[in-house]
Design brief:
The structure is a homodimer of 439-residue chains.
Chain A (H helix, E strand, L loop, with lengths): L1 H6 E2 L9 E3 L2 H4 L25 H8 L4 E3 L2 H9 L6 E3 L1 H7 L4 E6 L10 H13 L4 E6 L3 H12 L3 E7 H6 L1 H9 L3 E5 L5 H9 L7 H13 L4 E3 L6 H20 L6 E5 L4 H15 L6 E7 L4 H4 L1 E6 L8 E6 L21 H8 L4 E5 L1 H15 L5 H20 L4 E6 L7 H9 L8
Helix pairs in contact in A: 3-12, 4-6, 5-16, 6-7, 7-9, 10-11, 12-13, 16-17
């Protein structure tokens, strides 16, 4: 009994949270999004062209807890929630560290990552609003995959604009989205005015996330029955992802784990926010002194190198201005396998937490994160997504710091996704052709 | 509570079985393996060149229950056992069937399939025997992946001979095995005398499972510290896989599910045997009248078209003669994506059960199984491995038969693995270039 409990702490299906947690209620003052035309706080109407009303309500909500509709909960259970909290006993042994290392298994979703948590909620509320089609962009493909599958569950069509470079380099990601029933266009595409304009000017472009966002928004703005869906950055996405952290708190109670350091990778911020915010709320109330560490790529180090200022969420300047750590709207990160970490900014809520000194951040090079991923695969059996390798690397480093100091810290990190569709990156690492790509 | 319980029945980590179940104890008379030289029953010594003693003991055991060593149990937990039993509520709704459809989630193993259950046990017993290297062959790659990872857990080196055609067509499978620390050779290789001979005679060959088995056996036979590991067919593999069925029985008790039809795909037979045998033992004792259905490919229909006779387990005629349903040792199945179902024979225990009228069998074409796989992905969220698509297709067909008759059968099938590394097959299905390949 004792051994089994120490390897993995499960929650029963009924353990899926009944309410989301909203850090906005506890974090104190935040600078609001601004309408770039008037430079005044954005109104709900500023979002109505592309989002449905309930999503806009959640985006602006200051309530601490918001009920999760029963149909969303059932679907979360269906897609493998609650996710286990597992102990990396073999990795600890390999590192000879006095620290204990735990990891939250978001990789066990059949969608491959944590992205389904918000995709499900967004598809549900859009379906309830009578929306018949959702549009979105995808780079690495995790987000597009999640939205493709869940749209189908609620009888919504899903159109994904996939950055042309990824579309060509990752054809299996495209196939996965199509298997789930989505329509996938390489972006820039001939489906939108903006796409056609870009194609005319740059017929050979491999595209960018900024262009893909613009195409998805244009398609949504043209038809009141079509909405746009975003996989990170905004408050409502952080809210939906809070199921990760709420479950983790419950599991740590069962396992009598008092966490010293909670670690997650951060690109747009939804994985880190979902994992950290519920316990961060407790920290604000003085109930824990746990460290919360966001781990980013040196190829896009918004928290560790960027400035805290108002900036656009997209490259084209389509969105309201958001107060966040940013490298600038025109910053184009170098190519790395962790496509989910290639974002110029950081979620306003994560940025506010950083600015208030509530969280810490580290940035790593690509090679050292893959080295950590391979070590993890060989000791623990799971191949982490390139993004998750950043959290693995940080957890290993903290554990090795404990080895020096003799501290028996409890380190808990989020395994945000698996690497089954990112094995080309592992191939490059193993055959020695991988390069670092720092700023 | 009621809804959640109806979606998924979990067992706690302690629910991993403590004993394996051995159908040999209950099935009655079976024809023994024969030494092809003497045509007399094979003795344990006939296996000693390539297997360790404990594996040979289990291969010949007639005990009903064999204890699972604690270290193997801990590792089963670590690799996500017990596996959930889930209800396919959305698929039922889509089919408008009165039947209930349940599926066992072997796809949730980080190794991608059920193959880890026996890989773990084999690596453990070989490590206990002082073996420093395991060799094996792999075609589709599921088995090689499982053995690669678990060898690492017990500090054993692992050498995989991968059929050259797969090695070249599925480079990511090779990368996954290398990520787990295995040495992978394209077979035929220059590593063995047999490989060199084949290469000299047929320099452009894409290889075959038979050649790869011969190379793995040759390497094991040459060194007493090297053993060979087999992923299916033999009794000890069926034994180790019985954890699937033992857990499923426990979960059906919890869910008050009285199964009418238990379905699994069958290539060599380990997935079907592991899933069905524990309850089949109850059927032999008259405690259930459940139907047990093995589902094979029309490209290799050993149970539905083959003869019940003595035949070699491999193409080259290296192994003892096994009494089984077979298409002949030289039968080469046409190319299908379900590489795990491309085997000329069927496990002697599965064959005996078939010959005694204890189980039924169906065979399907490739296209109709992928059609079922896509339907499952769109309704339930998981992309099945091409092998598992055969079980999905049979479950759908039984459910549609129920729709005609009005019977509310309980259908339980085994989702033996996921299709994340088989998306090229889905791509071919979706773009219309897939062809059937019946005998």
């Amino acid at each position: 009994m004792a051994i089994a409990k120490d390897i993995r702490i499960d929650l029963p299906p009924e353990g899926v949270p009944k309410k989301w947690y909203n850090l906005v209620a506890d974090i104190g003052h935040m600078e609001p999004p601004l309408n770039p035309g008037t430079m005044k706080p954005a109104s709900p109407e500023d979002f109505e062209a592309i989002f449905c009303k309930e999503i806009i309500r959640q985006e602006g909500s200051t309530e601490r807890h918001i009920n999760i509709p029963e149909e969303v909960r059932d679907n979360l259970i269906h897609l493998n929630r609650p996710a286990p909290l597992q102990r990396a006993v073999r990795l600890e042994k390999y590192l000879k560290t006095p620290a204990k290392i735990y990891f939250k298994r978001e990789d066990m979703s059949p969608l491959g990552s944590h992205k389904g948590n918000t995709a499900l909620a967004q598809a549900y509320f859009n379906a309830e609003s009578g929306i018949h089609t959702l549009t979105t962009e995808t780079g690495a493909g995790q987000w597009g995959t999640a939205l493709a599958m869940v749209s189908n569950l609620f009888d919504i069509d899903c159109t994904v604009f996939m950055v042309r470079g990824s579309y060509e380099q990752k054809p299996m990601r495209k196939t996965l989205m199509q298997t789930y029933g989505a329509t996938v266009h390489a972006s820039p595409s001939a489906q939108t005015e903006f796409g056609k304009k870009v194609l005319k000017e740059h017929p050979d472009t491999t595209g960018s996330l900024g262009i893909a966002i613009s195409e998805a928004c244009e398609m949504a703005a043209k038809d009141p029955n079509i909405c746009y869906s975003l996989g990170s950055v905004l408050n409502h996405v952080m809210l939906h992802q809070s199921v990760i952290g709420i479950e983790t708190i419950e599991q740590m109670k069962i396992g009598e784990i008092d966490p010293d350091c909670m670690i997650a990778c951060a690109g747009g911020g939804s994985n880190f926010g979902g994992f950290a915010f519920p316990l961060l709320g407790e920290k604000i109330k003085g109930k824990t002194d746990c460290e919360f560490m966001a781990v980013e790529s040196k190829a896009a180090p918004s928290l560790t190198v960027g400035e805290f200022k108002y900036d656009f969420g997209d490259t084209a300047g389509f969105t309201p201005l958001l107060m966040m750590y940013t490298l600038g709207q025109e910053f184009i990160p170098k190519g790395i396998h962790a496509g989910g970490l290639r974002y110029h900014g950081m979620a306003p809520l994560v940025s506010a937490a950083m600015n208030k000194g509530l969280i810490t951040a580290r940035a790593y090079e690509q090679l050292e994160t893959f080295e950590a991923g391979v070590m993890f695969a060989r000791t623990e059996g799971m191949v982490p997504a390139p993004e998750s390798c950043h959290a693995v690397k940080a957890a290993i480093d903290v554990a090795l710091e404990c080895k020096k100091t003799g501290e028996a810290k409890n380190i808990v990190f989020c395994m945000s996704g698996h690497g089954m569709l990112d094995l080309y990156g592992y191939e490059q690492y193993l055959n020695g052709t991988m390069r670092d790509s720092s700023v």
